[in-house]
Amino acid sequence: MPINIPKEMPAREILEKEKIFVMDEERAITQDIRPLNILILNLMPEKQKTEVHLLRLLGNTPLQVNVSFLHMETHESKNVSKSHLDQFYTTYSDVKDKYFDGMIITGAPIEHLQFEDVNYWEELKKIMEWTKTRVTSVMHICWGAQAALFYHYGIDKFKLSEKVFGIFPHQISDRTIKLVRGFDDHFPAPHSRYTSVHEDEILAHPELTLLSSGDAGPFIITSKDGKNIMITGHLEYETTTLNEEYQRDLEKGITIAPPENYFPNDDPSEKPVNSWRSHSHLLFSNWLNYYVYQQTPFDWK
């Protein structure tokens, strides 16, 4: 089934070339079904790339999904045009009286800051509080996951001695949980971050379940009521994303090692191979099916 996005959105052309079923509003309103309404708070600087990453995964399910994008009112984005934001994004003030079946809060390259020092932290707190009564289930990614663990459960992040950067193996701790249904016992996933959270704090928290961890630390964490899903890595990344980040850092003069377990023979001149794609699609389809579609009310009113 399709994802429903604005007809003029640049991501549409990319997704259609990949044969992903995309529908515009004109066609969607003729269908007598109840689509899922998903809100994406996009905190990443290169917003159009993140749009494609997430829409690709949301579009690979048997459910019709209406997708809306949210940006922060208290932060000025420097890597995307104002016209793009004006045309395709909305703000919290515009959606605060609405209900959404699911929401995604992305990562952001601001790990070096304490949460309270982030210039939009107060607005983000307001949004996370709002999700408690207005959203059925929220998926938080990377820094977004750390922000959720801190705000909702009082678990703070800590700085790593060096960046976790590359493709790392993970294990499933409880495969009876529906979010990881169909996952292999061991599976790879991308990570790109300078901070982490303590595994023992997650295990000790009565409201949380640690579903997966590995060499990169805790990876998939869920609240026991399914309201919040925290993913500390980037299963949504494309094959080339880590290389783009690596080249970007080199151009900035940052001393950084190549992503681990990413390039064949650990040679940055070779083309990387995607080893995590199937689990990316499984994660998003399981979330949409079990945590959103099967839990959300047909009529929020």
From TrEMBL:
Give an example GO biological process.
Answer: L-methionine biosynthetic process from homoserine via O-succinyl-L-homoserine and cystathionine
Residue numbers annotated as active site: 142 (acyl-thioester intermediate), 234 (proton acceptor), 236
List the residue(s) that the UniProt entry marks as the site Important for acyl-CoA specificity. 111
Q: What is its main location?
A: cytoplasm
Catalysis: reaction(s): L-homoserine + acetyl-CoA = O-acetyl-L-homoserine + CoA
Q: Where is this protein localized, as stated in its record?
A: Cytoplasm
Q: Which residues bind substrate?
A: 163, 192, 248
Q: So what EC number does this one have? A: 2.3.1.31
Q: What are the GO MF terms of this UniProt record? A: homoserine O-acetyltransferase activity; homoserine O-succinyltransferase activity
Q: Which domain of life is it from?
A: Bacteria
Q: What class of enzyme is it?
A: transferase
Give me the Gene Ontology terms describing cellular component. cytoplasm
Q: In which pathway does it act?
A: Amino-acid biosynthesis; L-methionine biosynthesis via de novo pathway; O-acetyl-L-homoserine from L-homoserine: step 1/1
User: What family is it from?
Assistant: Belongs to the MetA family.
Which HAMAP family is this protein grouped with?
A: MetA_acyltransf
Report the protein name in the record.
Answer: Homoserine O-acetyltransferase
| Gene that this polypeptide is encoded by | metA
